[in-house]
Design goal:
With 693 residues, this protein is α/β, with parallel strands linked by helices. The chain has helices at residues 2-16, 19-39, 44-56, 60-73, 80-92, 96-109, 114-126, 130-142, 147-163, 167-178, 193-202, 233-250, 266-281, 291-297, 314-324, 326-340, 374-390, 428-432, 472-475, 486-498, 503-515, 518-521, 544-569, 590-600, 626-631, 636-651, 663-675; strands spanning 208-211, 216-221, 226-230, 350-353, 394-397, 458-461, 525-530, 581-587, 609-613, 655-658, 681-684. The protein has an eight-stranded mixed β-sheet, with helices on both faces. A three-stranded parallel β-sheet has the order 5-4-6. Strand 10 (655-658), helix 27 (663-675) and strand 11 form a beta-alpha-beta unit. Helix 8 (130-142) packs antiparallel against helix 9 (147-163). The two termini are 39 Å apart. The relative contact order is 0.10.
């Protein structure tokens, strides 16, 4: 108890210290208590205190050493919280078997503790015991879990159900999680039936899940009501690439274009498509010209083998592009009309969104702050836009906010527009102009969105996980006109539309493209997102080599599918000096980036794999926790810029590997999926794609 009193006193002193010195205070506290431990090595309280200080410092191995020592000093009567934190940190360093043992001990102390049951089940699934994991998840549901924990169970139990062969149950629970999928609809009678069937088969909405223990790649196909499975990620990715090639070919009109030019073969069409897409991607965003224009310019690269003349494919390409863009055009046009507010800013129905508390304070995640992770916030923001579409409201961001990803010294508004373009021509001040006292709360502020206030002209919402906006019926809403595309497609379209970088961020992105020599490998980059940090305590920790092995399988599959046609028809555009496979690493863990570079140098990969990553990033801090927000261990502006740039780079990758338990990684996948018109192979190392938050 003395140690806790000393800790409290030092914390009180730290509050009065300058922010820049607060992180140094943690090191001082660790040193002071470590000295106490050396003087009194059998003091359980001291070991526990040092362990928890190391947890704040993000050093799970040291946490395990001290908490395990505290446990061994009194194993007959262990403290449940000690067991819980020890198990969490064992999981964080990859000791999943040991973590399960200590979770079980914690459950023995507090049998009704739902969180321990969930974390135990996650670890059981990861170490190859899915049957036991399913039983554990079922126990959580029988305990009467809260809505948030029940959603957590739904997300993680799916993979265990699929692994044990309970397909029908998995599909049923997945539909509860992401909503029903309508039958695929053709927007025009000239679209071939084969194309419609192909789109239905390929847009399954779950993404792929890879189980490294069995090497199986699996996905839940809601259109066919079946689980698709391949013996490796390579085979799954190769089948995906070939299926989309066939799908593109099926879009060609049945008759030759006007002018008598011969019909392109399937191989020639695929080669032309590949060349056009890569040419477009080799330019940075500021240099890009419309893709349709580039497709017309690309005719000169398709030469008739017999007569050596340029094939006129204008009509074919225009027809294909119009067909592919039908649903996407509907979304863009609908959002443009909604956000233009033609009837006037001061009369339009509006939803105002705030990213941070009005008083700028921070506190516990999910309750009194909006300071949880960037990916979670942006996902709830897409729900806000979806709600605005469903209720015909203009979506407006706060003009003056307290977003914890921004610093007033660098961006005085501390708002959404610090990084992204404004969502509407109307501002918060314009839409709230003329509101009467009865349209405001008792303090003269906007009314908060909740049940019973849907008819108010202007309401506001925050982005907390427990608000009215984040209710299940709002999260799963998809407009009837595009309901056949599913929730993943809809959320991806919204994210890509909303998260358009402003001029400043676009300039930074241009610099990153040049620094990473992106144009040299555009069209081949596999994005690898590795989320560690505080996420280690929530989900199983996947070894870095597993991510890299998965990414390499995806890269090889794409190369194998594209190389033959491209090399045969356009050998002059194949750069023999370019590394065969390029992996972009986005991670909050410096050890993960270092491991990727070391893996690249192994004899098996040397010369055939190139790993690229942003240099000089802020890594190694658990930025989604309230402790770090309070301690200001990071430069907020710098971290915000790095988060946005990593997200945009992931969205420009040609394939994705990560964990869908990470909101940030899932957001990057959704944006890339939308940018690639659904032709993006995404592999998760832990759970299927979902929409919570």
């Amino acid at each position: 108890w003395i140690s806790f009193a000393v800790l409290a006193a030092m914390r009180c002193h730290a509050v009065q210290a300058p922010q820049a010195a607060v992180s140094d205070q943690l090191g001082t506290e660790i040193s002071a208590f470590a000295a106490m431990v050396q003087a009194d090595p059998k003091n359980i309280s001291l070991h526990y205190t040092v362990g928890m200080l190391y947890q704040l410092a993000g050093r799970p191995k040291d946490v395990c050493d001290h908490l395990h020592e505290a446990y061994m000093l009194a194993p007959e009567h262990p403290d449940p919280q000690l067991l819980f934190h020890l198990a969490n940190n064992l999981k964080a360093i990859g000791e999943n078997d040991a973590a399960v043992n200590f979770y079980v001990l914690a459950i023995g102390q507090v049998p009704e503790g739902a969180v321990n049951w969930v974390l135990t089940s996650i670890s059981l699934d990861f170490i190859g015991r899915p049957h036991d994991a399913v039983r554990g998840f079922q126990t959580v549901l029988r305990l009467g879990a809260t809505a948030r924990i029940a959603s957590w169970v739904d997300i993680y139990m799916l993979s265990a159900l699929v692994k044990v062969g309970q397909v029908r149950r998995a599909l049923y629970r997945y539909e509860l999680l992401v909503g029903p999928l309508k039958a695929y609809q053709r927007r025009a009678t000239h679209i071939p039936r084969e194309w419609t069937e192909g789109m239905a088969a390929l847009h399954s909405a779950s993404g792929w899940l890879w189980d490294p223990l069995s090497n199986r790649a699996m996905r839940l196909n809601m259109h066919t009501a079946a689980v698709e499975s391949h013996d490796s990620l390579f085979e799954a990715a190769l089948a995906h690439a070939r299926a989309f090639r066939v799908l593109r070919n099926s879009l060609l009109p049945p008759s030759p274009p006007a002018g008598g030019a011969r019909q392109l073969s399937a191989q020639e069409t695929y080669a032309q498509e590949t060349y056009v897409q890569q040419t477009h991607l080799q330019q940075t965003p500021l240099q890009q010209t419309p893709l349709h224009t580039q497709k017309l310019d690309a005719q000169e690269h398709v030469v008739d083998a017999d007569e050596e003349h340029v094939v006129d494919a204008d009509a074919d390409e225009e027809w294909v592009q119009d067909t592919l863009d039908a649903d996407e055009s509907w979304v863009r046009d609908s959002l443009r009309v909604l956000q233009e507010a033609a009837q006037g800013c001061d009369t339009v129905r509006a939803l105002v969104v705030e990213l941070g508390r009005r008083d700028g304070r921070t506190g516990k995640i999910g309750t009194e702050i909006h300071g949880f992770g960037f990916g979670a916030q942006m996902h709830v923001l897409t729900v806000a836009m979806s709600y605005a579409v469903a209720t015909n409201r203009l979506l407006v961001m706060r003009s003056k906010d307290n977003w914890w990803y921004s610093d007033g010294a660098h961006c005085p508004s501390r708002s959404f527009t610090c990084y992204f373009e404004a969502l509407s021509r109307c501002s918060e001040e314009q839409v709230t102009k003329g509101l009467r006292p009865w349209q405001l709360d008792g303090e003269g502020q906007l009314l908060k969105l909740r049940s019973g206030r849907e008819d108010e002209r202007v309401v506001y919402t925050d982005l907390r996980l427990d608000n009215y906006l984040n209710l299940k019926q709002h999260r799963l809403q998809v407009p009837e006109a595009v309901a056949h595309r599913g929730l993943l497609w809809w959320r991806g379209q919204l994210a890509l539309y909303m998260l358009r970088p402003n001029a400043y961020v676009t300039h930074l992105l241009q610099i990153e493209f040049q620094s990473l020599a992106w144009h040299q490998h555009a069209g081949h980059v596999v994005g690898v997102h590795v989320r560690h940090g505080d996420k280690k305590t929530e989900s199983a920790v996947v070894p870095m080599e597993v991510y890299l092995d998965a990414a390499l399988q995806l890269a090889r599959a794409r190369r194998q599918d594209a190389a033959a046609a491209q090399a045969a028809l356009m050998p002059q555009h194949v750069d023999a000096s370019m590394p065969q496979h390029v992996l972009y690493i986005s991670s909050d863990d410096p050890e993960a980036v270092a491991a990727a570079h070391a893996w690249q140098e192994l004899p098996l990969h040397a010369g055939t794999v190139r790993v690229i990553a942003r240099e000089g990033e802020v890594r190694g801090v658990s930025t989604a926790t309230d402790q770090v927000v309070e301690m200001h261990k990071i430069n907020v502006t710098r971290y915000g810029e790095e988060a946005v740039l990593n997200l945009l780079l992931l969205s420009h990758c040609r394939a994705f590997v990560g964990t869908f338990s990470s909101n940030f990684g899932r957001l990057g996948y959704e944006m890339a999926y939308a940018r690639r018109h659904g032709d993006l192979f995404g592999a998760s190392m832990d759970v299927f794609w979902h929409a919570y938050p």
